[in-house]
């Protein structure tokens, strides 16, 4: 399979602090990969660097082979990379439907086509139809996460980046949200999920990358990687796994 | 009866302030920019309008038709050339830039128009009034209020209903998330400032009709706009409109108490609101 999105020696820094030390990763159309690792390992930074929210060299990120590193976020979206950001980052004060319409407006502006409509989204997450007119901040955490995913899908992405979409949610809600991933992939959309829950990451994805201190320490097929391998890659060699 | 008259005059005065305040509320709401040169832009547009009228012999409505597109263009250039470079989470760079712009504009206007006061001839409209039950209501202030209401209504509708309005509200709520949803913030900002300054095109014509203008007058207009926005509550156009009414009424009543007390009464109401309800009368806590 050829990669739709790939990184090549991706380096990123916040001022003097270097957060990524040459990360190579890729995802193919319709594939789901997980990015796991402890807090501060650089997972969110990796997604932010891809989105153009951090300065990176253009060859470090490739979309369908073309160098796109450091492209402004709105142009990344126009080229087919959407993100469900950490902490959801919904547009407070606007209704659920208006939050979604913002993405639809912009997709229409750049002529992006991908088959996601409000109706299809309502089939995927029926609660969003029911709550369409409600201000987004009065929704529960899980419902807000559905809006955030819906907003990203309505950007008509070829690659969907999901940053900690299970964080702080009840297990039942997490299952509901992860149950939507197969349908998104069926569309041919590649998915990258940053996930703290290793079991969930393994079961929901084809491949995974484990990061430690800004480097990829382990990669392989999700079904084949053992807990022991993950433990070693997660905490660094020499740490006992409980 | 005297106080009822003051109330009516205050509301009419509020209409003028609303025309100043709308653009300021829009710019602050979207970009967190307090545009110090806001009042100077009104005066600059007024003086351009006055020069147009005397050079080409055109009436105030024609001046307005010419001035509003010019104001829109000025706002767009202002954002693209200056404000987009200084907008950000830190409010200080934009404050300093617009303060500098304010000084530069004042001196530019002095150079071109000298310090003399001028006004726009309105063909008698500025002195016409109608009597209703013993209260004289000026025709011009009524037109100003009607236009202010129309502008507020139109701006509110645009924010709520249009594609651009949604993009603007999204950028105001979370600019980075807006960019991650495909919005180009700098483009949205440029259009927002174009609209904000465009509204000043209307205000400039009315300001030049109802009183005289001189290059140094911008500061007072800035203060009234700022006070109206703070009283009403940041980030809401109807809040800015209501704040303008409160400010206008406070000044008109203060003026009845003592002619020297009018402007001060407005400042006192502003300070009371700031001390007791800093989010503004109609703002959310």
How would you describe this structure to a colleague?
The complex is a heterodimer of chains A (242) and B (285). With 242 residues, chain A is of the alpha/beta class. The radius of gyration of chain A is 17 Å and the shape is globular. Chain A is 34% helix and 26% strand. In chain A, 48% of the residues are buried. Chain B has 285 residues and is mainly alpha-helical. A two-stranded antiparallel sheet of chain B has the order 1-2. In chain B, α5 crosses α6. The longest helix of chain B is centred in the N-terminal third of the chain and has 30 residues. Chains A and B meet through α2 and α3 of A and α6 and α7 of B.
Shape of chain A: globular
Query: What name is given to the CATH topology of chain B?
Result: ABC transporter involved in vitamin B12 uptake, BtuC
What do the pLDDT scores of chain B average to? 94
Main beta-sheet strand count, sense and barrel state of chain A? 6 strands, mixed
Question: Main β-sheet of chain B: number of strands, strand sense, barrel status?
Answer: 2 strands, antiparallel
Strand segment count of chain B = 2
The share of residues in helices of chain B is over 70%
Q: Structural class from helices and strands of chain A?
A: alpha/beta
Q: How much β-strand is present in the residues of chain A?
A: 25-35%
Strand arrangement in the largest pleated sheet of chain A: 6-7-8-3-9-10
CATH names the topology of chain A as Rossmann fold
CATH architecture classification of chain A: 3-Layer(aba) Sandwich
* Shape call of chain B: globular
What radius of gyration of chain A results from the CA coordinates? 17 Å
Helix proportion of chain A = 25-40%
Task: Output the CATH class name of chain B.
Answer: Mainly Alpha
Total helical segments of chain A:
10
Structural class of chain B: mainly alpha
Short descriptors:
heterodimer; A: alpha/beta; Rossmann fold; 6-stranded mixed β-sheet; B: 285 residues; two-stranded antiparallel ribbon; 2 strands; 75% helix; 3% strand
């Amino acid at each position: 399979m050829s990669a739709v999105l790939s990184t090549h020696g991706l380096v990123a820094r916040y001022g003097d602090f270097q957060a990524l030390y040459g990360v190579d990763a890729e995802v193919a159309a319709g594939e789901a990969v997980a990015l796991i690792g402890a807090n501060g390992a650089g997972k969110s930074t990796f997604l932010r660097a891809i989105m153009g929210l951090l300065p990176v060299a253009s060859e470090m990120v490739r979309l369908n082979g073309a160098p796109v590193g450091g492209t402004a976020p709105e142009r990344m979206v126009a080229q087919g990379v959407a993100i469900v950001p950490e902490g959801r980052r919904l547009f407070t004060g606007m209704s659920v439907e208006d939050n979604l319409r913002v993405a639809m407006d912009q997709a229409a502006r750049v002529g992006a086509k991908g088959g996601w409509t409000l109706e299809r989204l309502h089939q995927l997450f029926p609660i969003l139809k029911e709550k369409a007119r409600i201000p987004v901040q009065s929704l529960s955490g899980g419902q807000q996460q559905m809006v955030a995913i819906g907003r990203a899908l309505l950007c008509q992405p070829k690659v969907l980046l999901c940053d900690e979409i299970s964080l702080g949610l009840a297990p039942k809600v997490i299952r509901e949200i992860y149950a939507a991933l197969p349908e998104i992939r069926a569309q041919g959309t590649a998915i990258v999920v940053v996930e703290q829950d290793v079991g969930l990451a393994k079961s929901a994805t084809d491949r995974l990358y484990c990061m430690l201190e800004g480097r990829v320490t382990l990669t392989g097929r999700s079904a084949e990687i053992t807990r022991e391998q993950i433990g070693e890659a997660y905490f660094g060699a020499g740490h006992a796994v409980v | 009866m005297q106080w009822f008259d003051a109330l009516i005059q205050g509301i009419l005065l509020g209409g003028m302030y609303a025309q100043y305040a709308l653009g300021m509320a829009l710019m602050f709401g979207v970009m967190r920019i307090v545009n110090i040169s806001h009042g100077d832009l009104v005066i600059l547009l007024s003086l351009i309008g006055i020069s147009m009228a005397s050079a080409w012999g055109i009436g105030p409505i024609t001046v307005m038709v010419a001035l509003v597109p010019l104001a829109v263009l000025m706002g767009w250039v202002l954002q693209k050339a200056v404000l987009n470079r200084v907008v950000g989470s830190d409010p200080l760079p934009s404050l300093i830039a617009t303060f500098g712009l304010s000084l530069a504009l004042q001196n530019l206007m002095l150079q071109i128009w000298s310090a003399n006061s001028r006004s726009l001839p309105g063909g008698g409209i500025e002195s016409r009034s109608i009597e209703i039950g013993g209260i004289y209501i000026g025709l011009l202030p009524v037109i100003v209020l009607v236009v202010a209401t129309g502008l507020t209504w139109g701006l509110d509708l645009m924010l709520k209903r249009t594609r651009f309005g949604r993009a603007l509200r999204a950028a105001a709520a979370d600019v980075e998330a807006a960019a991650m949803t495909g919005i180009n913030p700098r483009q949205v900002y440029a259009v927002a400032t174009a609209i904000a300054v465009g509204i000043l095109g209307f205000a400039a014509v009315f300001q030049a009709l109802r009183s005289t203008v001189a290059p140094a007058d911008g500061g007072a207009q800035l203060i009234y706009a700022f006070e109206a926005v703070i009283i009403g509550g940041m980030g809401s156009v109807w809040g800015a409109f209501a704040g303008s009414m409160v400010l206008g009424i406070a000044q008109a009543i203060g003026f009845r108490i003592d002619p020297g007390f009018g402007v001060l009464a407005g400042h006192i109401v502003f300070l009371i609101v700031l001390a007791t309800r800093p989010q503004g009368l109609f703002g959310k806590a």
